[in-house]
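Structure ticket #2291
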Amino acid sequence: MTDSSQKTIFVSMAAMDDEELYHTIRNAFENAKNPENIFFGIHLTCKSSKTKKDLQKVSKKYQRVQYSVDHQKKNEIKTLGVGRGRSKAHAFYNNQDYLLQIDCHSYLDKFWDSRLIEIFEEAVKEVGDDLLVVTAIPRAYGYEKDGSIKKQGSKTRCSYFKTESFFSKVVPQWGEFDSSDTFEERFLPSVKVNSACVFGNKKFANNPGINPEAIFYDEEITQTYNLFGRGLALVFPNFEDFPVSHLDGEYMTKGHERPFFLDYLDRDSTEAIHDKLVFNYLKFANDPKNQEAINLYRKYSKVDAKKGYFLQQQFFIPKSYRVQP
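Resolution: structure written out below.
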């Protein structure tokens, strides 16, 4: 059994003007079993001076928080893009034992750090090696009137691909279902990376597969191609007490709000950034150097990079964690 008290975790986040960013960092340190082993790398894209000041304040308090900042101007497209933000956040990685990639509007339960390491080691036994990531759509949370955290909705949120459905007309589209109602297994092969929560060891941390050109909808699928193409198994934790939760838009309250990247753009710029998303995704999907990884993933997931989902199964779960090339 791994001694988690000696293991370090690098938490990587891309952020915009999220009021929840401050609270995410604070609760991560306060709820960690070994807070001295937690390190943050953050890239903030903001137009609000308050967001930057909050980040400066919390970084001084907890020390092991490094960050970079882009000042966002109205209709400025080049500074927007989650791939860009995650790449800049990851630049602060410094050989920590594990990497947790999450969104900046997340809640981490008591002793989340030791719990994630335990889950990872359990997944290693399930798969048979440590070339893997544990990834999930985190359960949603919101706030009660007294400020306490309340978990909301499905307890397990597992991805599936929708039939002949696309984001921005080109990116295969997915949805989610509560897998605990359908499967009894403690772990399941995940059909894709869920970028709001990915956890792995140095085999993931040294190269997390981020596509720096990803805008939004294309982020998860291109990171999936990159990781799966390198042989990393995608493991979904099919149990209710997973220690990471996610602030979904419908549960936002005053003082805990978060923007969407389109909030910084007018109609013309919104069309332009979607055009950029389509161009970047098709460029990636058509690049010869990515074809081996994409073809391997298509065999695993039954999803074609440019044609979409072609198996008539509503809740498609791969039968194994890897396929042979």
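Closing remark: The longest strand covers residues 158-167.
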